[in-house]
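Protein folding task:
====================
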Amino acid sequence: MKKIAVAIQKGGVGKSTISVSLAAQLAMSGKKVLIIDADPQGNTTSNLIESFEYDLGEVLFGKVEVEKAIIKTNVENLFMIPTLAFSDNETNGLKLYRTMQASREPFIFVDLVNVIQSLGFDYCIFDTSPAFDAFEENILAAVDEVVAVIKADGYSQDGLQLFRNNLKDCQKRKHIQPIFKTIVLNEVNHSYKLANEIIDALKTTDFNIIEVPQDQNFKSSTILRKTIQQQGAKTTTLEAFKKLADILK
């Protein structure tokens, strides 16, 4: 089973929509895919499902077994472990786990993915939060590869550099080596000079650069709890996710 973390230290770049679209693309190829919503905002969960009984916070606190928290989405071969974004019961919240327990359990996600692998999944994808603390480091210790999502603007470039620096520091301190060689440029608009300059500069690096164009279908797909593949999208959008899935196979 291949484990992938979709991450960046910058909010508002569309990380959750990229995570969902990647997971759906892999599932469409006939692979059994699990997406884990590891962001307390719960955007991935709200993008895919309306209701659920158990969430990731309960799994991490040991209140429920992993198998019970895994639910099927409306996409064939795609399953998820959801996150309850807003809860009256804070003891079940992922946010509380991050604050109270994450630094004490550095290998919890290693153990988690071992269980998931035993259930026959081909891919496990983590949608992470726009932070980089003990919780994210625990996820990175459990994955094979990291995919960063940015926009072609100056702010995202700063976030990318910060993420690269923190990842290198984490790798050195924790002796982990997740591969980081793929960057997704989201909402690309080639009519902007700055965007083209940023894209051209990134293409001179050793990274795989995937360009996802601006596409209004993302907004409607989120509202309707559909993937971009189900909703319909620009040909260039669908081609971008096929390319991304091929790179990560």
